[in-house]
Hints:
alpha/beta, six-stranded mixed sheet, three-stranded antiparallel sheet, 16% strand
Amino acid sequence: MLRRRFLQIGGGAVAASAIPLGATSQASGWPDKPVKIIVPFAAGGGTDAVARPWADKLTQAFGRQFVIENRGGASGMIGTEAAAKATPDGYTFLITGATTTVFLPMVRKVNYDADSLMPVARVGDILCGHVIGAGVGPKTIGEVLDHAKKNPGKLAFGSSGNGTTPHLRFEAFKAKAGVDILHVPYRGGADSLTDLLAGNIQLMNEPVTLPHVKAGKLHMFAVNHSQRMEDFPDVPTLTEAGFPNCDVPLWFTLWAPGGTSKEIIAKLNEKVVEISKTDDMKAKLKLAGAVPVLQTPEEIAAFREQDRKALAELVKTANIKIE
Length: 323
């Protein structure tokens, strides 16, 4: 069964993030014009698939347009820099995962202060797994590993960029399994998927692959979670396949530039939590391969630190280097 990931942590996300009485002056009239949400990857990828239903729902909730702006490139750093340096007036936000907010600042110089970004709300955790093209031959994890060991360096996996979670997931798997598989970075998951379906690469780990797994064009051979996925009950988890502690969580958060009004952040968090509880939003996130997670901004900050420590250990054990 699918692990229950619809979480409410710390005794109630709504109560913890509610706007304090008497502190609503900055948020009372917000928003009174369109709000921009930067997605630092190309349209059609995993981040974009999660962000777009949120833009639609927030537009309906606030009566003002929430507009997605895709700024792909440099593994998401270009768009993240734009958001981090934007005027903190409550009209520019960012939706991204740990790639640009946690991992890349650990291993290379970036042109923004990732810790200045203020967490607003968790907008979805991705349920996904490792997939291989149907034309390659192997279907199970055992068959994939046997094929990879007999053909070192001849298999290639695509990701949405260096240092992205799909990249790190395969690096963790390669390190645990002791196989040589080439990494090919792209500007986004959609571009990677195009080459996978064309046979130019053989493997991926992104939610955009899921419809093609259902269609039989791709085979999923391992799931990146503690329990199996509801839609793919026959696919084992990495732990079941003999590779425990091999997951890298793929979690998406709405962020604000440093200095954004805490009242606006609280107002937006409250609305995201409210929407996350609806059956319609759960269904829309499921189409993107995601599930909702309820957290306050403070809980997100704590989770970021937890993820930072785990990724630092992965960098060390897998000897990951970003050129």
